C-alpha cells in the first residue's frame, strides 16, 4: 500500500498526508535541557521551541524500512544557550541518520560513546551524516526558524533517557556573537 505524502517547503514547510505524525515541544517540556535554570524558569513556558513531523510508512522497529521527517527549531536563547532539541542516541546504537538543512542557520551537535563532542554548521544546502553510536541534537544559531529534513532506519529507535540522565559533555553558547561549544 502506497500513501501519498507531500512536502510544501515553499509555503508551509510541513509534511502533508496520511500517516504523518506531528509533535511540538514547548519550553515546559524541556526541563533539564538548558544549563541556566533561572533563565529557563523566566522563559515563557508555553513557547514552542521546536516542531517535528515524521512519516513512518512501516511499523517502527521493522528492519529494512526508512522513515522521513522534518524539524523546525525556532530562534531564541535560554540565557546565552541557543534553543535546541532534547537530543538522543538511537536505541539500536549502530544505526546512522542523515540531516540536511533547507532554511536558517544552526548547529548539529554530536557526542560519541566516549563523550567527545563536536558540531557541524548547518545552513541551506548542507548534508550531515550522523554515524552510529553517536548522540545528536540541533541548535538554532540564527534569527529565523531553522528547518531541516531527516532520514533514518525504521529499526533505529530513540533513546532520550541516556541524554536526560547524563546530558551532553558540551553545550553550545553564544560567546561574543558567535556559537562556541563549551565542555561541561
From TrEMBL:
Keywords: Gluconeogenesis, Glycolysis, Isomerase. Its EC number is 5.3.1.9. The keyword Isomerase applies. Pathway: Carbohydrate degradation; glycolysis; D-glyceraldehyde 3-phosphate and glycerone phosphate from D-glucose: step 2/4. The keyword Transport does not apply. It is an enzyme of class 5 (isomerase). GO terms for cellular component: cytoplasm. Residues 25-172 form the Glucose-6-phosphate isomerase prokaryote domain. It catalyses: alpha-D-glucose 6-phosphate = beta-D-fructose 6-phosphate. InterPro entries: G6P_isomerase_prok, RmlC-like_jellyroll, RmlC_Cupin_sf. SUPFAM superfamilies: RmlC-like cupins. One of its GO terms (molecular function) is glucose-6-phosphate isomerase activity. Belongs to the archaeal-type GPI family. This is glucose-6-phosphate isomerase. The lineage of its organism: Bacteria, Pseudomonadati, Bacteroidota, Bacteroidia, Marinilabiliales.
Amino acid at each position: 500500500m502506497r500513501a501519498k505524502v507531500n512536502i510544501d517547503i515553499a509555503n508551509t514547510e510541513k509534511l502533508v498526508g496520511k500517516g504523518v505524525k506531528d509533535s511540538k515541544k514547548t519550553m515546559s517540556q524541556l526541563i533539564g535541557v538548558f544549563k541556566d535554570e533561572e533563565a529557563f524558569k523566566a522563559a515563557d513556558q508555553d513557547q514552542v521551541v521546536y516542531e517535528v513531523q515524521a512519516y513512518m510508512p512501516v511499523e517502527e522497529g521493522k528492519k529494512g524500512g526508512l522513515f522521513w521527517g522534518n524539524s523546525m527549531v525556532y530562534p531564541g536563547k535560554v540565557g546565552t544557550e541557543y534553543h535546541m532539541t532534547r537530543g538522543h542516541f538511537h536505541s539500536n546504537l549502530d544505526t546512522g541518520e542523515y540531516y540536511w538543512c533547507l532554511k536558517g542557520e544552526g548547529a548539529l551537535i554530536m557526542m560519541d560513546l566516549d563523550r567527545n563532542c563536536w558540531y557541524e554548521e548547518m545552513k541551506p544546502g548542507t548534508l550531515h551524516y550522523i554515524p552510529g553510536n553517536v548522540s545528536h541534537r540541533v541548535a538554532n544559531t540564527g534569527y529565523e526558524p531553522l528547518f531541516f529534513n531527516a532520514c533514518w532506519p525504521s529499526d533505529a529507535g530513540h533513546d532520550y533517557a541516556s541524554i536526560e540522565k547524563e546530558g551532553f559533555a558540551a553545550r553550545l553558547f553564544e560567546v561574543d556573537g558567535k556559537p562556541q561549544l563549551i565542555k561541561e
